[in-house]
């Protein structure tokens, strides 16, 4: 942190510490007089580094740079499930959706466990004001049966984690999984958050995969 000297009427001089955001080197200009305010700000700083969701890619950068990086370097694997890892019955895959160079990065995680497979949908972004908000609806169909899960507010994360999810997920049990690859039976619709008085139907800006 920086500090500055302040003169008091008694003649004594005291120091007032100015705390700068740890992301100052990435463009953040916020300054604070209390360390606690910095810690709170870090959780929603727009310039916090985000990590590329592409497997085996070590790139990390600020939100807008990450979107450009992914569109430029991983466009060939966009909109399809890509293998992340496989060990025994556990299989991890990820599908990343991005409609254009400046569009948000949406990651659909597929995690196969003994009991079935889990699906989660997340936006790779900082939890900062001004970042695009998205809604989603994801479904899986097999044998005439359909499971569906959705949310009007997509969770934002700066880095993907492939631990078994504890919330905001859909679990498809084994008896609904066919012999072929189940990812071909998954459909996802991404759109802007809908207000209570809006219709449930997808508008023209929604994206289906």
From TrEMBL:
Ranges of residues in domain SIAH-type: 16-75
InterPro entries, per the entry: SINL_plant, Znf_RING/FYVE/PHD, Znf_SIAH
Keyword Metal-binding belongs to the record: yes
Keyword Metal-binding appears in the UniProt entry: yes
GO molecular function list: zinc ion binding
Keyword tags: Metal-binding, Zinc, Zinc-finger
Function comment: E3 ubiquitin-protein ligase that mediates ubiquitination and subsequent proteasomal degradation of target proteins. E3 ubiquitin ligases accept ubiquitin from an E2 ubiquitin-conjugating enzyme in the form of a thioester and then directly transfers the ubiquitin to targeted substrates. It probably triggers the ubiquitin-mediated degradation of different substrates.
Entry protein name: SIAH-type domain-containing protein
Organism of origin: Capsella rubella
């Amino acid at each position: 942190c920086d500090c500055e000297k302040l003169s008091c009427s008694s003649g004594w001089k005291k120091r007032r510490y100015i705390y700068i955001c740890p992301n100052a080197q990435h463009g953040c200009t916020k300054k604070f007089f209390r360390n606690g305010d910095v810690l709170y700000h870090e959780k929603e700083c727009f310039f916090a580094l985000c990590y590329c969701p592409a497997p085996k890619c070590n790139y990390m950068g600020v939100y807008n740079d990450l979107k450009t990086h992914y569109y430029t370097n991983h466009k060939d694997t966009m909109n399809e499930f890509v293998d992340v890892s496989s060990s025994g019955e556990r299989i991890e895959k990820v599908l990343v959706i991005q409609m254009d160079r400046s569009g948000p990065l949406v990651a659909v995680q597929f995690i196969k466990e003994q009991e079935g497979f889990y699906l989660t949908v997340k936006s790779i972004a900082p939890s900062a004001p001004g970042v695009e908000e998205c809604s989603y609806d994801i479904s899986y169909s097999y044998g005439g049966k359909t499971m569906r899960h959705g949310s009007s507010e997509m969770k934002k994360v700066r880095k993907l984690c492939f631990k078994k999810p504890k919330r905001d997920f859909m679990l498809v049990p084994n008896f609904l999984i066919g012999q072929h690859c189940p990812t071909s039976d998954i459909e996802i619709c991404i759109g802007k958050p809908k207000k209570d008085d809006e219709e449930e139907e997808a508008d023209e800006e929604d994206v289906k995969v």
